[in-house]
Design a protein that fits this description.
mainly beta; ten-stranded parallel beta sheet; 0% helix
């Protein structure tokens, strides 16, 4: 395992072994593409800031955030089972207004067991599965989900007034007890929105397709 007290990556590649960030770090450019099974983690009490318009690739790697992952700019791209796990008690801050996509074949996934907060006024598009098991707060702009996914029994999407949660493709499943809440807009534009069993709490829903 490669343990770094701090990282300021402006290019190059961090392949191979598992990676642990033990202090506040900055990922401006370069990639974390790896071999199957190699993980990466952000320690509790620390922040990884992802910025600049560069593409941030992590094919085959799962990043577990135990602190704060502050996505400010640039695309996030994974594939072949890679993804991000936002752990319980952690925060994923989304102000990038960009794509979280698969670019290497195979599936990718974003799983939040902590808090996801959308702060940017634009439209980020999650083309990977978006699994929400805790609190997802859409405070501004539009969160576009086009890779499907699921909300667990404790999964809540809270959409602030003037903001939008948009289901744009794929199949999204709500577990019994999941909720779509808030004064903002929740829209089904394409794909399938379903309740696996029991009932979900939906304040309002506009079905366009």
């Amino acid at each position: 395992k490669l343990v770094l007290t701090t990282l300021n990556q402006t290019g190059g590649s961090l392949p191979g072994a598992s990676l642990q960030l033990a202090g506040n770090s900055l990922w401006s450019a370069g990639d974390w593409n790896s071999t199957a099974g190699a993980a990466a983690s952000i320690a509790a009490g620390t922040t990884l800031t992802v910025n600049t318009t560069s593409v941030h690739d992590f094919n085959l790697r799962t990043i577990t955030n135990n602190g704060v992952l502050d996505w400010q700019a640039g695309q996030l791209r994974t594939g072949n089972g890679g993804g991000i796990v936002n752990a319980a008690g952690a925060t994923f801050s989304d102000g990038a207004n960009n794509f979280f996509a698969t670019a290497y074949g195979g599936a990718g996934v974003f799983t939040s067991n902590g808090t996801y907060t959308k702060t940017g006024t634009g439209i980020p598009n999650f083309q990977v599965a978006f699994n929400n098991n805790a609190a997802a707060n859409i405070n501004a702009g539009t969160l576009s989900l086009s890779g499907g996914g699921a909300a667990g029994a404790a999964g809540t999407f809270t959409v602030a007034g003037g903001a939008t949660l948009s289901f744009d493709n794929g199949t999204y499943t709500l577990a019994n007890g999941a909720s779509l809440a808030g004064a903002g807009n929740t829209v089904l534009n394409n794909g399938t929105l379903s309740v696996a069993a029991g009932s979900a709490n939906i304040v309002s829903l506009t079905v366009n397709g």
